[in-house]
Design a protein that fits this description.
The protein is of the alpha+beta class. It has two domains: 67 residues, Orthogonal Bundle (Arc Repressor Mutant, subunit A); 68 residues, Gyrase A, domain 2 (2-Layer Sandwich). The protein has six helices and six strands. The longest helix is centred in the first third of the chain and has 16 residues. It is elongated.
Length: 151
């Protein structure tokens, strides 16, 4: 799984930084980074990451379909959150071991005006709400994320 995650991260990085017109170019760039991948595996990776081929003025370009990538990430995040607890000031989210930082990053990237920010350890996230009055909304948001694919 770690190799797959590393490969997916490298694919996203390359697609962000380079104009990739075909899969062979990406296979070569990945090989240059020490990541050997077959065309079949790359096609599966594209599907999982939501990579699409778009037509631009000088040909084709592979890019991340932000909406589809978001759906894939949301599916993963929903399984990584174990519980949410809160008091009068803060919200704590428990995650699978080693996943708190990824989940916290996802919550931060939602750019919700009810969340000031997050702090993540290994399996626990502290969410700082924009106001103590927003705690119920933040808890509802986390519960919605947590139960998104489970219902």
């Amino acid at each position: 799984m770690q190799n797959k995650t590393l490969r997916h991260n490298k694919i996203k990085e390359i697609l962000k930084d380079h104009h990739i017109g075909n899969q062979e170019e990406l296979v070569k760039l990945l090989a240059g980074e020490g990541i050997e991948v077959t065309q079949a595996t790359l096609s599966r990776d594209f599907q999982e990451l939501g990579v699409i081929r778009t037509v631009i003025s000088d040909g084709n370009k592979y890019t991340l379909n932000v909406e589809e990538a978001g759906n894939q990430i949301r599916k993963l995040i929903s399984f990584e959150i174990l519980s949410v607890e809160f008091n009068e000031m803060l919200i704590l989210v428990r995650t699978l071991a080693g996943r708190a930082q990824g989940v916290a990053h996802y919550i931060d990237k939602l750019n919700s005006n009810i969340v000031l920010g997050t702090i993540a350890g290994d399996d626990t996230i502290m969410i700082v709400p924009s106001s103590i009055n927003k705690i119920p909304e933040v808890v509802e948001l986390v519960n919605k994320i947590m139960n998104e694919e489970k219902t």
